[in-house]
Specification:
Strand order of the largest sheet of chain A: 2-8-7-6-5-3-4
Largest sheet of chain B: 6 strands, antiparallel, barrel
Oligomer: heterodimer
Largest interface: A-B, 22 and 17 residues
Distance between the termini of chain B: 51 Å
Structural class of chain B: alpha/beta
Number of strands of chain A: 12
Order of helices and strands of chain B: EHEHEHHEEEHEHHEEEEEEEEEE
Mean pLDDT of chain A: 94
Shape of chain A: globular
Strand content of chain B: 25-35%
Order of helices and strands of chain A: EHHEHEHEHEHEEEHHEEHEHEH
Number of helices of chain A: 11
Strand content of chain A: 5-15%
Radius of gyration of chain B: 21 Å
Strand order of the largest sheet of chain B: 12-15-14-13-16-17
Mean pLDDT of chain B: 93
Shape of chain B: globular
Low-confidence stretches of chain B: 41-47
Number of helices of chain B: 7
C-alpha cells in the first residue's frame, strides 16, 4: 500500500541494507551459532560482530549486551528480578509499569518530578526505571540528572531507551539500558538488555546461550539485522516534524509536551476532534498515523501517558522517519479537518 | 458514492457491506466499540471477537475498516440510562437508546467526517429518499420499533439495504460472498449483559442499593417480600414467590416505596397510555387510521391519538401490560408516524 508512513514510533520499516543483511544471514549464517563446526562458528562470529556494533553504539562492552526477543522482554528481565522495589515514572511504557511498586508523577509537560523521585529515594531502596524518551509524546527525560540523583541515594537506574537509540547521538548512561531493534529499522523480535551486571538469574533457564543468561537458540538473522540497522541509523531531524507541528498549531491543536525537550521525530497533537476519527480520515487519504500507542483492537484507549500529564482526549501521534515528508500529511490533514468541521457544523 | 457501513461483526451488517460494494459504492467499514464487557458463548455484539469478525469480513471484501471507540458515549447514554430507568421502576430499552443517541447521531456525524454521504446499517426497515421510515418487507423481522428516535434528516443520509429481504436471503448472500459470518447466530440479549441477568447488572452498577420491599395486592395487603424491585417488569408472572390460588402478575412497580403491586391478569388490560419524548416523522391527519405497537414483536393495536408531546394513545381494544420506559411506536399502514417513551397507562 502506497502512502506516507508516519508511525515510526510503533515500528520502522527495515532499510534495504537491513533486509539484505537478514536475508544474507538466512542464506549464509543459518547454522546454530552454538554448534562447534565452522558453519556454526561463522554464525557465532556474525552475531558477535552485531553485538560489538550494538555495544559500541551505546558505549558498553560487547559482553554487557544480552540479546532478547525485544524491549518488553528486556524490561521484564531486569525489573522482574529486582530484589528491591521497582520505582517507575507514570509515563513509562506498560511493560515497565507492570513491574512498578511505586510510581513517580510527571509535570504537565511529562517530565519526571524530581522532588517526588527524591522523596521516594529517601524512603528506601529502589530500582528506578526512567525512559529516555516517551513513545507517545516524544518527551525526553533528563536521564543524566536522574542518574546522579539515583546514584546519590545508592540506588540503581534502568533506562528504557527503546525510542532513543538510533535516533539520538548521545546514549544515556544508566546501570541497565533496554534497546529494541525494530524501532530503529531492525527486525521485529530482537532487542537487548545492556548492563555491566546481569540480573541475578537467567531470563530463560536451560541453555548456555548468551553466557547462560538467556537460553534458547540464538536468533542469528535477527541479531545480525539489528547490528546492520544500528550501523545505518541516522540521527532524527526535526525540520519535517516542525513543519507539520506548525500546521497543527495553526488549526488549533495543542501540542502535548511542548514545554519539554522532545524527540525530533515525534509530534503528539490534540485537536478539538477525536484523534481516532482523524487517524481514520488520514488513513483514507493515505497518511498512516496513530492515536498513541498501538492497540490490538485498533481502537483508541485512554492514554495513561496523557492522563499522567493531566490531559484528556484522544490525540494524533505523528512519528516520522527519514523518508517522511510533512506536506502530504498537511494536505491530508486539511481535507480531514475540513470534513470534520463540516460534519460538526 | 462513499458509504460508511456500520459493521457489528454479525451476518446482517456483513452482507450490507458486501452488497453496497457490489452496487459499486466506495464502502468504509466501521465497528463501534461500545463497552468492555467480555463476550459469552456467541451472538453478542460489540466485543473484541466481533470486532475481529467484522475486520475479517472487511478484509475479505477489501475495504478500509476502523474501530471507533464510543465507550464513553455509550456508557453515559445507554448503560447509565438503563440503570437509572430500572432504579426508577421503569423497563428500559437500551437498543432504542443506542440507535437514537449513537448510531444515527454520533456515528452518522463520524461517517460524514470520513467524507461519506451515507451511513448504512443492517436494520430490517425501509427508508425513502425523504427520510420516511417504513416497516420491513418481512414483517416478522421488522425493526422499526427500535428506530423511531432518529431524526428524518439523519434518515435522509441512511441506507437500510436489507429492508426488503428475508433473513434467509441475507444468509444466502453471505454464503455466496463467502463471508466468515454467514452462519453466526443471532444476537438477542442486551449486548452489555451477556449473561442476560439485568438484575445483577443494575445491582452492581448502582452500588448494591437496598431495593428490597413488599409484594402487595391492589388493596395494599402485603402478600410477600422481594429482594429488589428492579427485578420485575409489568406483566411478569414468574419469580414472585407468592401463591394466592390464582395467577398473579406484576401490575405496577413503585420505586419510591419499593412496592411491587400484583394482581390478576385482567388488571393488566389497559385502555390508553401517555408517552413523551416523541419523535414525529409525520403527524397524522385526524381521519387517518393509526395502529400502535408497545413492545418489539408485539401486535399492532388500532388507536386514536391526542396531542403531540406528550401524546395520549387510546386503544380500540385493550392493550396488555403497558410498561413505563418501553416505547410506543405509531404507524399508518407500513409507515412509521413517530414514537416515544411510555410514561404510564391511563384510564
Amino acid at each position: 500500500m502506497r502512502g506516507m508512513y508516519l508511525d515510526h514510533n510503533a515500528t520502522s520499516p527495515m532499510p534495504k541494507a537491513v533486509r539484505e543483511a537478514v536475508f544474507a544471514a538466512m542464506e549464509r549464517h543459518w547454522a546454530n551459532p552454538d554448534s562447534p563446526h565452522r558453519l556454526g562458528q561463522d554464525a557465532a562470529m556474525a552475531v558477535q560482530r552485531a553485538r560489538t556494533i550494538v555495544a559500541d553504539r551505546v558505549g558498553a562492552r560487547p559482553k554487557d549486551v544480552t540479546f532478547t526477543s525485544g524491549a518488553t522482554e528486556a524490561n521484564a528481565w531486569v525489573l522482574g528480578q529486582s530484589s528491591v522495589p521497582v520505582v517507575a515514572v507514570a509515563t513509562e511504557h506498560p511493560s515497565v509499569l507492570a513491574w512498578a511498586e511505586d510510581v513517580v508523577p510527571v509535570d504537565a509537560d511529562g517530565v519526571v518530578n524530581f522532588n517526588a523521585l527524591e522523596a521516594r529515594l529517601r524512603a528506601g531502596p529502589a530500582l528506578v526505571s526512567v525512559m529516555a524518551a516517551n513513545n507517545e509524546t516524544g518527551v525526553i527525560q533528563p536521564i543524566e540528572e536522574v542518574r546522579k540523583l539515583v546514584h546519590r541515594y545508592g540506588a540503581r537506574l534502568h533506562c528504557d531507551a527503546t525510542q532513543w537509540v538510533g535516533r539520538m547521538e548521545r546514549t544515556p548512561a544508566a546501570d541497565w539500558l533496554t534497546v529494541s531493534a525494530h524501532k530503529l529499522g531492525g527486525p521485529r523480535g530482537v532487542g537487548a538488555l545492556i548492563g555491566a551486571e546481569a540480573p541475578p538469574e537467567s531470563l530463560l533457564r536451560g541453555g548456555a546461550q548468551e553466557r547462560g543468561r538467556r537460553g534458547g537458540t540464538v536468533n542469528a538473522p535477527g541479531i545480525i539485522g539489528f547490528g546492520v540497522a544500528v550501523e545505518h541509523a541516522k540521527p532524527a531531524e526535526a525540520a519535517e516534524r516542525d513543519a507539520l507541528e506548525a500546521f497543527c498549531r495553526s488549526r488549533g491543536a495543542a501540542i502535548i509536551g511542548e514545554g519539554a525537550d522532545r524527540l525530533p521525530n515525534t509530534l503528539c497533537a490534540l485537536f478539538d476532534h477525536p484523534g481516532d476519527l482523524i487517524v481514520a480520515g488520514l488513513d483514507l487519504e493515505g497518511v498512516f498515523a496513530s492515536t498513541g500507542s498501538a492497540c490490538s483492537s485498533g481502537s483508541a484507549q485512554a492514554s495513561h501517558v496523557l492522563e499522567a500529564m493531566g490531559v484528556s482526549g484522544v490525540p494524533v501521534r505523528f512519528s516520522l522517519g527519514h523518508d517522511s515528508a510533512a506536506q502530504p500529511a498537511i494536505d491530508a490533514l486539511s481535507t480531514v479537518l475540513g470534513r470534520l468541521e463540516d460534519a460538526c457544523a | 458514492m462513499r458509504v460508511v457501513a456500520a459493521m457489528s461483526g454479525g451476518v446482517d451488517s456483513s452482507v450490507v457491506a458486501g452488497l453496497l460494494l457490489e452496487q459499486g459504492h466506495e464502502v468504509i467499514g466501521v465497528h463501534m466499540k461500545l463497552h468492555d464487557v467480555e463476550e459469552g458463548e456467541a451472538g453478542h455484539c460489540c466485543g473484541l471477537d466481533d470486532a475481529m469478525d467484522a475486520r475479517m469480513v472487511a478484509d475479505s471484501l477489501g475495504i478500509p475498516f476502523y474501530v471507533m471507540d464510543l465507550r464513553e458515549a455509550f456508557r453515559k447514554a445507554v448503560m447509565d440510562d438503563f440503570t437509572q430507568n430500572y432504579l426508577a421502576g421503569r423497563t428500559p430499552n437500551p437498543c432504542i437508546r443506542c440507535n437514537g443517541v449513537l448510531k444515527f447521531n454520533v456515528l452518522l456525524a463520524r461517517a460524514k467526517a470520513l467524507g461519506a454521504s451515507h451511513l448504512a446499517t443492517g436494520h430490517y426497515a425501509v427508508l425513502d429518499e425523504t427520510g420516511s421510515l417504513f416497516r420491513a418487507a418481512d414483517h416478522a423481522k421488522d425493526q422499526t420499533y427500535f428506530l423511531f428516535p432518529a431524526r428524518r434528516e439523519a434518515f435522509q443520509r441512511t441506507l437500510f439495504p436489507l429492508g426488503n429481504m428475508t433473513k434467509a436471503e441475507v444468509r444466502a448472500h453471505a454464503e455466496r460472498m463467502g463471508l466468515v459470518t454467514h452462519s453466526k447466530p443471532e444476537s438477542q440479549e442486551v449486548c452489555f449483559i451477556p449473561d442476560d441477568d439485568h438484575t445483577r447488572f443494575v445491582r452492581e452498577a448502582a452500588g448494591d442499593p437496598d431495593a428490597a420491599g413488599d409484594i402487595v395486592d391492589e388493596a395494599g395487603t402485603v402478600l410477600g417480600r422481594h429482594d429488589g424491585y428492579f427485578r420485575y417488569t409489568i406483566g411478569q408472572r414468574r419469580g414472585l414467590g407468592v401463591a394466592v390460588g390464582h395467577p398473579l402478575y406484576v401490575l405496577r412497580i413503585e420505586a419510591a416505596t419499593r412496592r411491587v403491586v400484583v394482581g390478576p391478569a385482567e388488571r393488566l388490560q389497559e385502555q390508553a397510555l401517555v408517552a413523551s419524548g416523541m419523535n414525529w416523522f409525520r403527524y397524522p391527519d385526524p381521519s387517518e387510521p393509526i395502529v400502535a405497537r408497545i413492545r418489539h414483536n408485539g401486535g399492532l393495536i388500532g388507536a386514536t391519538i391526542e396531542g403531540t408531546d406528550p401524546v395520549t394513545v387510546r386503544f380500540h381494544a385493550p392493550a396488555r401490560a403497558i410498561a413505563p420506559g418501553q416505547a410506543v411506536v405509531l404507524y399508518a399502514g407500513d409507515e412509521v408516524l413517530g414514537g416515544g417513551w411510555i410514561d404510564r397507562a391511563v384510564e
